[in-house]
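Notes, p. 3: input format for complexes.
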Amino acid sequence: MPQTIAATLIPGDGIGTEIVDATLAALDALGAPFQWDRQIAGLEGVTAAGDPLPKATLDSIRRTRLALKGPLETPSGGGYRSSNVRLREEFQLYANLRPARTLIPGGRFDKVDLVVVRENLEGLYIGHEHYVKIDDDPHAVAMATGINTRAGSRRLIEFAFEHAIRLGRKKVTVVHKANIMKALTGIFLETAQQLYEQKYKNRIAMDTVIVDACAMKLVLNPWQFDVLVTTNLFGDILSDLVAGLVGGLGMAPGANIGADAAIFEAVHGSAPDIAGKGVANPIALMLAAAMMLDHVNLTDKAARLRTAIDQTLNVDNVRTGDLGGKAGTAEFTRALVKRIEHA
Ligand code: NAI
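Output follows (343 residues plus NAI):
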């Protein structure tokens, strides 16, 4: 009997259940030894337990330190705080890992294979914002504070270098705006340069680029990059940019990793417009599951899952509607499971 690995499963809202079921079917076919503790969050948490992040869900992740999560709905403007942000803070998930690889050849950006490593807890996303009233205008001035720490930058950049080296990558590019935000992003750049000198200069290449130039270079020639590491806001934008290079959010997985837990998810949201119709593309969550397999050192199963996705898309030509195909979630999943079983 193979050893089991306890993990929390949060199906989430909207298309969550559909893509989670598809992903579980793929993991079962691979014989992945996860023992799931199913929990709720997001809108389902509010409806069923009066809390978008119930205590039982937090306790489960505290115990397993490992979770696969479907999308969670967050109201815009008012309403409850994003459960995703709360999860990141609760478990200090400081690194957001967003790989982007071309899955369907022959498009505008063929053979792209990049990883964006984004700082997940600091920067301009800490939520210290306020307005200043002048005369009768309560919103005359808007202010936001960003905070980057040397310790926070260091642990993230160290994570990026270690991850890049483990994957056999060739180069880490540090993305910043230290020419303008000299302190806020200067500390990130300075920390990267010091760390590189101290620990990494004989092990991997490093270069630096200003974020606006980086955006242009990514669109003109994404192949010049390998691993990009950057602060929270820039990472949020650039990771969506690279997802766009390889076919959009339907194919983009993400991992939120900290010292105490790791949570794997699709980058896209709950897609309420297609929920319940059986047409959602499950690939992003499946690729997140592949990252989860890598994380627990089941790299062979992770590779088999990625190969089966490639073959289902490109040999069998079974694709969901967002990729121009005609298959529903169930048909895609059946074809994928067949590929896994007959590999
Ligand atoms: P969304 O990503 O849910 O949808 C954007 C568009 O992409 C929609 O047209 C949708 O149908 C399509 N789409 C998304 N995933 C797809 C898939 N797997 N297959 C086929 N088409 C897909 O973004 P939206 O509509 O802005 O957000 C909806 C809800 O999701 C909001 O409540 C938002 O807060 C939440 N959200 C949650 C995230 C998470 O839990 N990590 C991330 C992003 C949004």
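The chain is about 40% helix and 25% strand.
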